[in-house]
Amino acid sequence: MVKAQYLDKANIDTKPTFERSTDNKEPFFTFVREHDSRLVQDICDGLRPSFAKEIPQLYVNLASQCMNATPSERPSANRIQKLLDDWIKEELYINMFREADEVESKSLEYAH
């Protein structure tokens, strides 16, 4: 059995967090292409999903940091938890996310 070496800033699975909350679409949905080995290679080469314009910039920044190609450059789980805790406590951040949710809800209403 081979022991894996884990980093403090390890590969935190961002999929549940960022999958649909960025533009209500699967990541890479806007790319008309197969989800195949070429997409995997493009992701390794730096391709990242896009974010809807109404998403608060601080969230975009965190998501981008979490998707950094260099694991040691990603925030630790403790850092992410601290940021999320801070956001929950501050009315300014709560309002940013509420406004983004309202814009998304309206756009979903128009889509149906």
Question: What are the SSEs and their pairings?
Answer:
Elements: H1 15-18, H2 37-44, H3 57-66, H4 77-89, H5 91-111
Describe the structure in your own words.
- With 112 residues, the chain is mainly α.
- The longest helix is centred in the last third of the chain and has 21 residues, at 91-111.
- The model has no long low-confidence stretch (mean pLDDT 76).
- It has helices at 15-18, 37-44, 57-66, 77-89, 91-111.
- The N and C termini lie far apart (52 Å).
- It has one domain.
- It is 50% helix and 0% strand.
- The protein is built from five helices and no strands.
What can be said about this structure in brief?
This protein has 112 residues and is mainly alpha-helical.
Indicate the mean pLDDT.
76
Radius of gyration: 16 Å
Number of strand elements: 0
What count of domains describes the coordinates? Answer: 1
Output the number of helix runs: 5
Residues in β-strands, percent: under 5%
Order of helices and strands: HHHHH
Shape category? flat
Structural class by SSE content: mainly alpha
Give the low-confidence spans. Answer: none
- Which percent range fits the helix content? 40-55%
> How does the major sheet shape up?
none
| Euclidean distance between termini CA atoms | 52 Å
Organism: Racocetra fulgida
Protein name: 19680_t:CDS:1
